Amino acid sequence: LKARSASPVVHAGAPFVSDAGPYGAWLEPIADNGGTCLGVAGDDYAVLAADTRMSTGYRIHTRNSSKVTQLTDKCVIASCGMKSDAITLHRFLKARIVMYEHKHRRQPNVTAIAQMLSTMLYYKRFFPYYTFNVLAGVDSEGKGAVYHYDAIGSFERVPYTTSGSGSSLVMGVLDCQLGQNNQTKPGPPLTKEEVIELGKDCLSSVGERDIFTGDGGEIFIISSAGVTTATFELKQD
């Protein structure tokens, strides 16, 4: 009897083959392109921050890839995870919003978009979009709103949240500075300007420890007047 080869012999342009027969081509449908985002809801505003690095493992594909898409005048979304799925999800979500505008002759508020996004994610639950989303905006009462999602549409309105490869590093800082958890004498709430600086500091700190976060950052400030943006630099190594 012929001994079976310990390792398969790979032929260019063909499936993996060994002396025992073909193994079949290997397909990996999911990739994590890294990055970190965070959202904070204020009394009359919301802040969304995200980095711009897109990578796979130790390879940086681009240093200037935005994770954030503006959906309406008062709503933005950030998605970490697989970039191609995020692009597809944002495109379909914007198409659904256009359909809503044609039907109702107005833009949907952030509450309606939050439910719509949940439905779209749950519809794909058996082969989900590999995205972890944070939705931020101002609701119909003028109050800041932030929603956190998992990959299949479970969501919750929260005062602050984070997602992505560096989320575990960010959450403790937000709990301390915004939630003021375990503090015997909580201080006054942060102002809008202080929240913006906190978002920058969080991403800058994460970039020191998380190799998938870095290069540049974007800040989106949403209020009843609209959406304003700012950019800042992060570590590029």
Describe this structure in words.
- There is one protein chain.
- The protein is α+β, with helices and mostly antiparallel strands and 237 residues long.
- Helices cover 28% and strands 33% of the residues.
- The chain has 4 helices and 15 strands.
- The strands form 4 sheets. A 5-stranded antiparallel sheet has the order 13-4-5-14-15, with helices on one face. It has a 5-stranded antiparallel sheet with strand order 8-9-10-11-12, covered by helices on one side. Strands 1-2-3 form a 3-stranded antiparallel sheet, with no helix packed on it.
- β8 and β9 form a beta hairpin.
- α1 (83-104) packs across α2 (110-123) and α3 (167-179) runs antiparallel to α4.
- The radius of gyration is 21 Å and the shape is globular.
- The model is unreliable at 7-14 (pLDDT under 50).
Task: Give a nutshell description of this structure.
With 237 residues, the chain is an alpha+beta fold. Helix content is 28%, strand content 33%. It is globular and about 70 Å long.
Number of DSSP helices?
4
Rg, alpha carbons:
21 Å
**Uncertain stretches of 5 or more adjacent residues:** 7-14
Q: Report the mean per-residue pLDDT as an integer.
A: 90
- State the strand order across the main sheet: 13-4-5-14-15
H-E order: EEEEEEEEEHHEEEEHHEE
Helix content: 25-40%
The main sheet comes to: 5 strands, antiparallel
* Total beta-strand segments: 15
Instruction: Note the gap between the termini.
Output: 54 Å
Derived from helix and strand composition plus strand pairing, the structural class reads: alpha+beta
Kindly estimate the percentage of residues that lie in beta strands according to DSSP: 25-35%
Overall form:
globular
